Structures
1.
Amino acid sequence: MILRLYILLPVLAVVLFLYGAIVNIGYIEENRCRMTYMFEHPQYTRLPVKGNERFPKYGLYAYSEGYITQRVQQRIFTGAPVLFVPGSGGSYKQVRSLASVALRKGIDNNWQTHLDYFSVDLNEELSGVYGGFLQDQTEFLELCIQEIVRLYGARGRTIRMFIVGHSVGGKLAQAVVAQPGTRANIGRHVAGIVTLSAPVDKPVALLDHYHQSFYDRIEQTWRTNRSVESVLKPSQSKASLDDILFVTIGGGIRDIIVHDGLTSSRYADLHAMTHNIPNVWLSVDHLCAMWCLQFVLVMNRFLFSMVVPQGRGNFGFVEGKHIQLDKATRFLSQPFAGSLDDDDDAHVPVGKGKELLLVQHNPEQEEWIEDIRRSFTERHRAGLDRTRVQMIRLVPDKVAHRFLRVEVINSEQSNWLSGCAAVEIHGNSRMCLKAVSLANYTLPVPSSKFDRFGALLDMHELKRNNPTWTHVLVKIPRTNKPVQFSVDIFNPDERMMNLTMPYWFDYRAHTILHDASPDDSFYRINIHGMAYTYQTIALDLTAISCGGVKGTVVVKVRVPWATGYDRYAFHEELNQTTVYIYPPIQKPPGGEDEAEEVPIQLDVHLTPGCKYRIRYAQSLRVTIARIVQQHLVLMPAHCIALLLLAFKDQLSQTAHNDPAFVVGKLRSSLTKPGPLVMLLATSSLIAKFLTLFKSIPPVELLATPLVVSILIHLASLGVLVIATLGLWGAIAFCANFAHKIILRLIALPIPVMSSTFLSCIHKFPLAIAVLLIAIALTACGGVSLLCAAAVYFVLLSKAYEDYLENFVFHTARKIASRLFGAREQSERDGKRGRRRRRPANETGDELMVINFHLPLFFLVIMLGLLNVPSVITWAKNYHYANTLQPDPSLVPALIVLVCLAVLWQLNTPRNVYGYELLAALLVIVAFVSVLYCQVHVYRLNYSIGLVFLAITVHQIIAPKRRDVEMVDVAEEKEPDGMVEQADQESEDDKKGN
């Protein structure tokens, strides 16, 4: 019973992983992006690039619409240049949304300022999973930059451009300024780099060593020529890449390809997530980042804000990185509200170079009102006919008047919040003619319908810093739009709630607020104990009752150790809202005291007039989804490690002195808990032990929690068990069907030739292996590996057919002996049992052959799957070159195919010594796979190649097991038929030797 339950655990883990994948695809958060539309048909004009003959499959295009196309075809460019670089599998036409909005804005302002968008065609190559073309793409991108410089230089202009790179295109943009020998030349033409959903410092998966060397080269160059700090100290000299503005932008939880933690860089001047960018406020998926209207508008506003005139009718980007960074902070981060340039404001210097912004008041045109209520909301649906100034008294001695949460909707003045000493008298009211702006305390609040701003003030601290102040002022100018403002004064201890992250097995719902007051508009929730990226809490906010208003909830999530990852989640006109809380990057290691000091903070902004109930629970669905998203790439290493440990168990069934070698069953070895427990218990200990030796290469120290590691192990084991059962079913019931499929794939014009070719696979496996090696050398190693897997299946199915024939014959002979000669047969069997030891595997040699080759077949399949990106790249570029160059799959394919040529030709497994040493080697390779190949997945190619090489050498040179005396006696006493069978076995042994 316990063993059956153990078998169910891996299957359950596979089901959980499938469920997490489904949740990732479309059940976490709805897509609220609006489409970007064009007014005219887009035109892409190809521009000749000097040196393009080296890269005939790449190209450079300029975007245009309508009559603008004629100017582009005449090579007339007067705007500030922006170069778009697509990502893995991306098209140059993906620039359409960004370029169309920018073009329409340029037409609307009569070309007072405009942008020129260019796009690079990289042949839609899958550079995210195949790194062999990354260097070629970088060199062509360099040629494109030089060509754009020449286009503008022909009109006597010196320009600096912005590069917008999506996905791997962002990494190419970072690489082009780090090109050796040309860095100074290219860098001076690049004003800034903006990456969209790009894996900047770490790739999503390292499937070949070209990716590794590409990232290492960029890291080394940027570390040498770029300061990590965005603001340099006065004594610190500038590096050559410090003048380039570097902005990284992530998509959030909807981006299932490049998750949050991969989108930031230590060299970035600014990092932002789309769900925290003002006027975007939502997460976007990997492709949506290029057409989401909310984000496209903000991105173009940011680029247009840096455009300055350069001569007559020409425009370029402003010089000075500090100015560009200020613009990026204003548009892409959480800036202070307002432009600080209103007509009624004046800057007054106040000591030590500081200056305060004063807000002028005109009491004849304003209505001054002081309200003694602590919490209230006022709505003016018809607008205001006079400017209103709401006065909020500063009360320094009362704890209940310490914090102020104020929010305004549709206020048309940026400096709507200020503070002053109300000592002047106008009519029956106190007032002040000048007030100091508190715009640096205000922030925009997410809303899809209104201009909404809010502020949270510590009025006691404000009073201590400004002892003469008496009031905080909320100024709302006259308007015809509906206006609303709310004031909430409270004791922070009454609005602060603390909760602890539940244990991994606790999914109960907990209520932390039963019935909030309708006047309460703000709560702060501190979450302790949440440190890992997979941990997720579902926060449920339910509006119990609303007094004639529609509920709107805004939750700001702040993770103290993740700079730039603050997140706004807002839901409008919903009675029930669920917000998922998770840390985007793992908490740095620290003590328990530090964990208590920096909890994750949630600022919950509720709709005044509504009563809310707040509950929370650990979310299983999002937790599993994030584990799948971030740790799926680790599964190949665990699958191969568990398969090698199971293979080791298969080879360990025979005692050292036993003359007959026996191979165990793969399914039985996989379902034993020993290999799994050994891998879990000792891998982390071995990793810590190996770090003590400097001569040993550093292991991949992954801070993966034990729960996640167990789930990954179980899911990997479940995949192997299900695949083993499926393969046995395919061999047992679908062998004939598989033969027909292979005949179809061969598709020779003459059926007889197809059948002959299939029979050659059975009779001449060495010739087929040589053909596969030729395919690897002339086409692609991955293609030959997939073909080798198909041939291997044919050989296994043929071995199973032979086993069935012998099994039926042996069963029929047994029945006949029982019916017609049971006594004589039993006597003969008794004599043979005394004189000759039968093999421990009673099912026959053919089944033992299948048991031996089944794990090898799985290794071939895994090797082929690991190199599928090379196969796809070879197929996409076949009309450019018949052979894939460079081919990361070639070396492991040649190693495995040469070994298969020997193993297929020999009568394997041979009855030889040395399987104990081979089993020990399999254990070592299994642990190496877990310690060194989880992140660097491409290293698994060489682990599998080493296993095949060791098995092949062992089968060739190992001494044979045999008991000569027993075999001779058996030959003398057995009947003629059995002697003939023994002779046949002897001949087979000679052939094997």
Note: The longest strand covers residues 537-546.
2.
Amino acid sequence: MASLEQLNTGFAFTHLRGYTTRPHEFHTRRSIAKPRTFLSLSSQTHQDHSSTLTSHSGHKLPFLEEITNLCDSGNLHEALAFLQVDPQKDALSNSLTIKEALGMLIQACGQRYDVETGRELHELVRKSIHYCNDSVLNTRLISMYAMCGWPKDSLRLFRSCQRKNLFMWNAVISGLTRNELYGDAILMFEEMISSTEFLPDNFTFPCVIKACSVLVDVSLGKVVHGMAIKMGLVFDVFVGNALITMYGKYHFVEEASKVFHLMPERNLVSWNSVIWGFVESGFSRESFKMLTEMLEGEDELLPDVATTVTLLPLCARELNVGMGRGLHGLTVKLGQSADLRVSNALVDMYLKSGYLLEGQMLFDKNVNKNVVSWNTIIGNFSAKGETCIVYDYLRKMQSQWKEVKVDEVTVLNVLPVCSDKSQVLSLKELHGYSLRHGLHHDELVANALVAAYAKCEMLRSAELVFQYIETQTVNSWNALIGGYAQNNDPGKALDSFIQMTNSRLQPDSFSVGSLLSACSRLKSLKHGKQIHGFAVRNGIADTFIDISLLNLYSQCGKPLSARLLFDRMKDKTLVSWNAMITSYSQNGLPNEALDLFRKLVSAGIRPFEIATVSALGACSQQSTLLLGREVHCYAIKALLAEDAYVSCTIIDMYAKCGCIKESRRVFDGLRFKDVASWNAVIAAYGAYGNAEEAVKLFEKMSNELDQIPDDLTFLGILMACSHAGLVEKGLKYFNQMDMYQINPELEHYACLIDMLSRAGRLEDAMRIVNDMPMEPDARIWGSLLSSCRTFGALKMGEEIADKLLKMEPDKAENYVLLSNLYAGSGKWDDVRKVRQVMKEKNLHKDAGCSWIELGGKLYSFIVGDNLLPEAQEIRRMWRRLEEKISILGYKPNTSCVLHELEEQEKIKLLQGHSEKLAICFGLLKTNSGTVLRVYKNLRICIDCHNAAKLISKAVQRDIIVRDNKRFHHFRDGCCSCGDYW
């Protein structure tokens, strides 16, 4: 007997017992599709045995001709009946002829999956004295049972044979592999090499290698490879092809390539196998290179359908339409384009690459469409969100119901476009079709229906579908939990999560990620931490959960916690970088956001739209023009500048950096201007105080270009009218919202009320507050209170302050507004009372802070700051400026100093305002003609505003000051705001 020691492999197979319950107890599996095998027992394959089945005369006898004809036509039962006729006639006296007929008929039963006739033949052989122990017939019976999907019967027959040869062992191993009993096949292989004298041959190894491939046991596969090398069979083309396929499935492309290049003989299967391995492992360049080598090689092989349908999906994945077109041309030249598999792959390639017209034309030209053809085109347009086109193709598909029927894949492809309330009717139609045709029993369809109803905000329907799922899996629960999460119902999401765990199902990363997303939307840090703890305790961790946790801590205002989590992540994907950069940007930490963006680029990772938008947003927050321009340049080089979100953010960045001309230049340069880009430029002009240009753009957008304004468009134009005091125009635009069927939101009312109150129409503003359909928020009351101070409406201001302080009792800014109201009316006792309350509550007013960017560096100034290195120079510069602007009519306006001080002390305080310090520093450090851009965290005061106007005239400089409300562009003694702010 051969042993492992004789084969010198040094590997024990005892651990393979784990693949099945008992070594020789096999499962029964009925095959549906015709399986493939590496082993053939046809007369051509085993000439040494099957030669005995030929008649002595050397030619076919009439009897065998009749059996052959009946087998070829599929009349196997009739052939069996013919075989059982009285054997006293002419040729029937030849036992070899009968044996050949039996073998032929048994083989036909396997090919036709006719196990019943096969069993009758088995019974004939078993009862025959001459044939019961015939190795050839028994081998064919073993193969027949395996081919018909009865591996248990195949094994039982094998065990009953008294004399076994290598062909029988190959037949049973091949049969087990054919029926996907891969662990059992390997155990049978172990038994053969350890308990018999037979050595595996070039038919044994391909079956065993395939079993190793499916079981994903690379160590075992390498041992079998070693055995093939030692036995000199590794150079066999069939063994080599099996090894290439195995290594390709493991993504061991180097090993697969080595086997391929060492093969002395290669066929088309060899080339297809190695190309497939490269494709599966993501080596696109190498895949196409192998195709080129095959075409230019000495073997003179041409790609077949298998080659084409392997490479076309790669072209689709890589969006390499150039190579796809080349393959398309090749299929036409080789006459493959009419093949349905090739046609479907070409349609898929063109659609995924964005060449929709070409894909549709190919689809329409295909006259032999199958369900895969329809699913391909429907699935691609569904992925692109083309709802109308998806439904159109679905209707056309249903009109051809005699040729092709909608299946589970079709329903799964259509359901994603049913993603909002407008698609509820279509969703119900799909659900009804699934019920009528039994498709709802498919787990994926049922789960997709739950998810679709949830997206359409029909949670009750989602719950009903879920309840009728026979076997609720983790994926089913995930669909329901995800639905609750999408609809901001974390309570029900958590309840479902608990029910799932109680039903002894282990939540996966999707379950946890959905819950974390729900908590992020509701900013529920408490629940989010509980879920985080659950994930840690149960070892549930992956990139999806890490990203969800980053978003949770970011949305809940915990960027430090998010950064700690980010730093601990082993594999930082681009999405995690994006999430962290966005976290810093959204939480008012622009320096940290920009620093992380630099690290991302330095790490050699190419940022995409989200990271670029966040970096531009950080530049906007800090008004760092130089850095903003650098990010803009990066976006252009990375071909991101035409992206709708990126372009809008660039427009906003330049506007917030005081470069309205740059904003307009970017806007004018856009090839396609959508509503978002119009909104961005209108808002930019509004914040800059150029309401006239904002109005022109709005009129052009809505009247000339037939662009339909949305809620953000009206928000921008109302803000522009508010900043410019265009009350009547603002009221007109507010009333126009109804014409566009836009319901005003709280933000629109806030703009309208701010516009009226700035214009002194406080009673009208209060009337709107009382009549609007929602409760006013703190912003509205704060705006009204500020205007009450401006116009001296003490009584109304006190009433408003009472409401504001009840709403936000711990916000220092509200007490400051009330204090300013009293100070403006000279009620200093009340001022002291308010400040005493602030002291008791430990509330502090934000100190006035301004900053200026020079040479890419930010310089900050705090009101009254005398600790700066350049403090003496700044004071001297101010004294020189004060002399010049005094000649032009400047007088300190102490009315904006809301403290009970002597006049000279008030003047001294005015001299230390942060914007004055920043302007003086900018004049000291820049050359003549340079535009000064100063940014302030609070509103600019009247005195600083007057001083800046006159300074711009005295020094012939443009000075742009952005406060926390708007821009002021000072030039030649005037301001862009028209002294209205």
Note: Residues 543 and 754 are 45 Å apart (CA to CA).
3.
Amino acid sequence: MAAVLKKRALAEYSQTVTQDAAHLPTKRLKLVKKPLPGAPSSLITVVNALDECKTSDEFLLLLLSISDSMQVGSAGVIEVLKKLVEHFKNEAESAVRVKILMLLTDIGLQNVSECVILAEEIINLIKNDTSHKVLAQGMNAILKLGMLVPESATSYHQKLVDVAKNYLKDSHHAVKCKCLEIIGTHVPLCSGNDSDKLFHLISSYFNNQDARLRSQAFSTVILLYERGFKVNPNIYVFVSDALKDDYEIVRSVALKLIWILGNAYPDNEILVPGSVHEIRLIDDAFGKICNGVTDLSMQVRTLACELLGTMKQISPKFLTQTLDKKLMSNMRRKRTAHELAWENVTSGEWASGKKWADDAPKELLKADSISLMSSGACGAFVHGLEDEFLEVRSAAVKSLCQLSISNPHFANMALDFMVDMFNDEIEDVRLKAIDSLREISAHIILRDDQLETILGALEDFSQEVREGLHRMLATCKMSTMGGLKMCVEKLLDNLKRYPQDKRSTYRCLQSIGRKHPELVVPLVPHFLSIHPFCDMAEPDVENPHYICHLILILNAAENSGTIISLLEPHTLRHYAYLRDTMPQFVPVLSLSETTGNSISRQMSVDESLAYLNNVISNLDVAETMTSIHISLLEMAKEQLNRLSEIDESVSGTAQFTALYIGAQLQILQILDRGFWVNPATLATQQQNTLKTNIQILLEYCLKLQFFFVGLNAEEQCAVKQFRLRALALNLVYIVKGSNSSALAPCHHFLTAVEEMQKDLSQNNIQPDGFTSLVFRDLSQIEEPKPGAVSRILTPILLSPKIASIPRPNINIRMSSANIIEPSGQGDTSLKFTAGLIMSVPFEAELTHLLDPSRIRLKIKYPDQRTQVVVPKPTHLKPLHYDTLNKEPPIGYNIRLLSSVLVSHQVWSEACNVEMNIALCVPEADIGKRKSSMDSNPTMLDLCAPVRVSIAPKPIKKTL
């Protein structure tokens, strides 16, 4: 019966291969997606069905039923075009003609080679049309299709521009807007008189009565600037007038154009209205954009605040004025004493004293006419930070940070305003203010009053805000010893209220100690309770507050030798304990020999890398029997695992090489015994052992593929070629020793072969012996059925030698996970009512991930029932592991903050539930076929599970 099923399964799997005269090195597989049942087979069929429609409504419904994913081949474009054009000419309903134009546009976007023909046909179709909707859609089709033509075809683009200029005479705003957009997108680059004529044409619409046309005219100028046109700065006056427009769409695009002109011509001098003084163009543009901060529209205010942060060439007096609401000189233009005396002499009049204020200045002018600085710049950031909308406040904080990074003086002025934003009602604004202050921390020194305001925000309920404050305090510089003491005490008080912030507080104090060794030295006796005459009680080394003090002092001792002499003997013993238990928070200190504590330093990277190279070289040179070779590989694997524990800098490289050697050991043991050649003759126990060994080999390949980041192209191809060998071995086993269908493993193997060839050709890498033989033999096979493929693979698996081990790459890192909460060390059991749900807080740190979307939470109950949970994207936070390390991280560093929901029925006693973090990998990689009986994806554990004792209680029955 099994043979009949197997024969039937093989008969269902067929493949037609066409081979050219020049023999291809690999098998090319073409996968054809079958159309959905009930769907039209092609666009030609649908278009032919238009002849059967009798009314315009039927035409429109049929056109609307065409799916966007439907494609038409290049051979059928002409026929479809003829049908649609014929229906367009005979159709009286404008809505149907608009839909036909949309369909023609979609066809042109799918068949780029025919876009020129389609554009010409559309131009001819709309030539005699009178509907504004049809003309607007025709212009839109010309715009999209013309973008597919290369810019080198200037004559064709100029033809489209001429068509657009012709339709500018239309009275409808939609047609004119599309025409202006075509001109801005397709007009060829020009200069001189041609450029002046072009800008004169566009600028003629700056004062159009329709706001949509005015907005599109300014947008067209922006399009031309982005394409490389030189914008005439003389239009600055017209754009400035548009800032007073009644419509926000005009004001917003005018703001962008003002910003472009200011950055393009920063040093051009313009005349201040009502004055003889001149001002730099960028300063005036900055003032006008500042006016937008007080606009009526929230969108315009947000845009103005965003643009302010990108203007870097502002004069200092204008920049500082944005933080002060009071305009200088009491809104009057000050004159020198010589000017005042000269006016008194030349006026011919003297003050008689009979009239009040007889000698008062006569030129009391308005602020807009005499102030050399626009009143909009006055307190612009103050207005933005006090806005009622969070979008405006957020944009103002971001711009304030951008300007402060490049201007230390402005950063110190903006510090108080940034600190005030810590009390904002919106959490996102508070976080952005905290991160902004952290970015400008290199330019500022916190005063005690500012530090007090910052520390007040530590009482925030949001853990993300508190940890953001910890990162910010870790980068800032404090001015006084009292401020440092206040900061440490506040952090410790906050730790009592929120114990979950323990690790974040440790990192914060670690950085504070490194940055302030001179301030920590006088506080050492206070923090460690050192009395000059009396011996105090030895503190508990497990106390988090005492650990915080030790982390602060020991990190300060790294840059100050005075602190070590102040420490007591029990403190030095505690240092040795912390160095072993949490080395990431405590540095390596050079202690004197009299202390009796010796902390060995790690080996250098060069020594470790040389040792790693030596191990791999010895394995490559060794030409021995299989049994001796296996023993050498086992010894090398143990040495590399030990090296990964000793030197963290080469840990990922050593772990990768050790895992690669482990996979080689596994495949050598399978091939050496020879059972895989004919597994059907084995006993049940031997067959299960062989199957288990192959599954372990495939898991090794998955770990090599998904557990490591920083691999170069050669190492990735080496891993994939080794995986190809494992998949071949698995396919041979399934065909020869299993009754299950081999269609899915065979298809997956052939797909892997095709991908392998692409990767090798793209990276110009030569395949190893096994891969080259597979490429050669599979290219000659007629039908890639599982039986035929397995017969080809069997001699290939026996013949070549195992590929050499890849040379180490120092940038390789292995993915890892550290579960912080729950710790699994509690003696008490968590109790809840059976049948209900209990939430267990879960916190973990995941480093060097290849793809964070593969993270899964795995909960295993004592009855062997396993539950897999996909964490929410909001529960995955970026892990700011080391604020002092400026190097970019390799892979993704993620912090997982979530809650695990546990539920079960009544247990007789408390039992342990295992919680773990795993990576979900593609199921096809282990050769399984997804079915209703076996639909669980493959999970690779990232760390050891944590056990939590749980006791579901029975429901209490009360009256």
Note: The mean pLDDT is 79.
